[in-house]
């Protein structure tokens, strides 16, 4: 199928991918049965997904476990061939994995590493310089930039196996972006990192996006990554795109209420506050209430006239709450330190 020329950085039309899966019962008997009578079924991981990303856009790609996020990113990076539909990235057809295409993109998978374990990261960088044919001057400039933004000083010459998880992830990112790709596919780039390191990775991605005008498609269990970096989100569920729009519009979809935060000049008890909404927290002079979405102005007006209010703000519910509502049991709220397997 030929695609229309487009200025989009990523253009996906009716993309599908199914995997052939051979089920096997456990144990020796299961192995024999599978050998004699091999049963194959198709898993439709991605089903008719279409979207476009503009150059320079950062987009969050969300969905519960097994929704098809990694499969989509692998297709867009040319690691998997789609079963149907089409994809174009920076004008290239990913499945052809042309040299110019590979120099234009990067895929970072937080769960996988590309750095060589027994060597210092600097050695892996030099290999990438050769593989991507990065001119010396550009290599030095990029290294200087990354060393400054990521704080790599002092860790580049250490054996990778001796680095902390956070230090290693910084080096992984530097290695993956050394060739200055224009399109970044980031699959869980902050997984397992502590809060400070997550913030460092976010700052790096933001800075890279601003300096180089790169397009970024990002999956993360940590909603803070998405809210900090992306205005637009794509939500995929069971292989199908169920939402494409801005974060705010996604939170509007939730049936939950809005949050009113209060600062009071004179303390109010929880019982007094309960007359205005559901009390989430209160410590006398500050409080957080949940109020029904359609009654925000009326409740706020009552609060202002009924209590001695110094400050009042209205906020959308946290994105974690909305995702939990959308995906129920398949969705675990993203805390600061979820278990690595926890998903949206
Ligand atoms: N190589 C494979 N062979 C067979 N099935 C696969 C393979 N890779 C993925 N799948 C299945 O395809 C579906 C989508 O998987 P995928 O890894 O794309 O989801 P995901 O959204 O990235 O999930 P997670 O958030 O858990 O990483 C799942 O049902 C998964 O079991």
TrEMBL record:
CDD domains: ABC_NatA_like
Record-linked SMART domains: AAA
Stretches assigned to the ABC transporter domain: 10-263
Alphabetized InterPro entries for the sequence: AAA+_ATPase, ABC_transporter-like_ATP-bd, ABC_transporter_ATP-binding, P-loop_NTPase
Pfam families xrefs: ABC_tran
Protein name per the record: ATP-binding cassette domain-containing protein
UniProt KW keywords: ATP-binding, Nucleotide-binding, Transport
UniProt GO molecular function: ATP binding; ATP hydrolysis activity
Superkingdom to which the source organism belongs: Bacteria
